[in-house]
Each structure stands twice: as C-alpha cells, then as structure tokens.
Amino acid sequence: MASSSIRSGPKGPVTYVARVVVIAYLVLLVAWPVSVVVQRTFAPADGAPGGLGAFLERLQDPSVVYAFQLTATAAFWAVLLNTVFGVGVSLLLVRYSFPGRRLLSVLVDLPMSVSPVVVGLALVLAYGGNAGWFGPALQSIGVQIIFSTPGIILATAFVSLPLVIREIIPVLQEIGTEQENAARSLGASGRQTFWRVTLPAIKWALIYGVVLSLARALGEFGAVKIVSQGAAFNGETATLLVQNRYGNYEESTAYASAFVLVLIAVAALVVVSILRPKEGPKEGPKEGPKEGTAQ
What we know:
It is a single chain. By secondary structure, this protein is an all-alpha fold. The protein has a single domain, classed as MetI-like (MetI-like fold, Orthogonal Bundle). The protein is 70% helix and 0% strand. Helix 3 runs parallel beside helix 8 and helix 9 runs antiparallel to helix 10. The protein is globular and about 75 Å long.
C-alpha cells in the first residue's frame, strides 16, 4: 500500500504552540480587519438605518455603479490581454531557446517586484500627452492613453501580467514535448497541435492564472491612481472610490464598496479551489506474476 506523501509525526507542545501562533497571526492580520469591514458595512451610519436594504441602496448610487463598471471594463480587457500574451510568452520561454531568454523571464517578473506607483509613473512618462515618448504622437491621431480608460487598462494589465505566465510555465515543463511531437509526426499543423494537445494539457493552469489575474486586476489601486483622473464619473475605479469616499467622510459608501471587493476576492479563491484538480494518490508499479505461480 502506497504511503502518504504527508506523514503526521508526534504532536508535542511545540506543535500546538506553533498552531496557535499561526492562527492568531492570521486572525489579527486578515480575519479581524475584514470582519470589521463587514460589521461597518451593515451598521447604521449618519442616522440612517443599517442592514441589507441600506447596503443595496448605497450600491445603487450612480457614481458607485460607474466605478464598478469602469473597474469591470478595465479588468476584462487587462485579463484578456494577459491571457493571450501569457500563453504566448509561456510557450516561448519553455519551448524555444534564444538569446535574451533569461532577460525576458526576468522582465516578466518585474511587475511583482516594482511598486505599482512606479508602474503608473512609468506609464505617464511613456504615454503622457505632453512629455511622454509616445503620447504626443498618439494624441496627434486622436488617441489619449493617460487619464483615460486605455491608461487604466494598461496599468491594470501591467501589474497582473506574471500571474498567468507563472501558472502555465511549470505545467508546460512537466508535460514535456512528447505528445506535441507525436501530433506533428501524424501530420497535425502547429495550430491543430496547440488547440488539441497543448491547450487541453494547460487548461487548468490557464483557468487558475486567469482567476488570480482577475482578482488582482479588480483590486489594483496604486498604478491606477497615477494614470487616472480619479474623480467621480471621470476615471474613478472601485478602489479609488473607496479611498475618495472614506476621505470625504462618506464612510458608509466606502465600507459597502470595500465589502463588494472582498466578496469578489473570496469568490475568486473559492472558484480556484473548486476548479483546481485534486491530485490523487500515485499508484506504485504493479507487481508482475511471481516465479513459480501458474500463468
């Protein structure tokens, strides 16, 4: 009988103390602050009643609806760009060897190590209408990037870029090239090989990366704040709405919007946990017939 990959050792006092410390850390850092947001969301504020009805009424504010629509639009296009680009870059990094391959791999991870505020500033320097490298040329043909929806999409796509790629690359390395080479040897074209062999093999990693990228895109703040006007009905995303309303002492609307963002993040984690396939126990090599036994 195959042994489990995770074996439980003796549970001593150190084990229980470590568990208590970890649970207390998570409660203080994550669970308790989020629970406060939930409590404030449904609590009475400014003499107005609380509860579910008040929560839904705050979300029906036209500026709140606009903020979430803009956030959904930016997240959709950013995730779409990162999905197409991420699959292509993953195949390029795993299946091909070329000069600058390591540099490209480093650049892919750059958004994870650079502050989103720096990302926004870099986009302004590149696409700004006055002093940007490409901004004046784009504005001359009627295309404005910074302080408009395309700038928000670029900033959102930049910060969530590595999430799809870093989920697909390990799977491509694990499956190898045997099945793809077999398909080509049978006469399949590159497109047929991708759609019928490669894509089915990486579909769960792709879905997992897309969900993570979507959750990251919906919660982006720093880069979007730099490239957006950030005003009501003018470039104000959901995260900017939370900051603006909280700063203007409209805390009830800020809490309601923040609660929706929390729900989306939790839903993304639930979807990921459901979609990710469970790894079953690996079967050991089957024993052949022993010597001396009847065939």
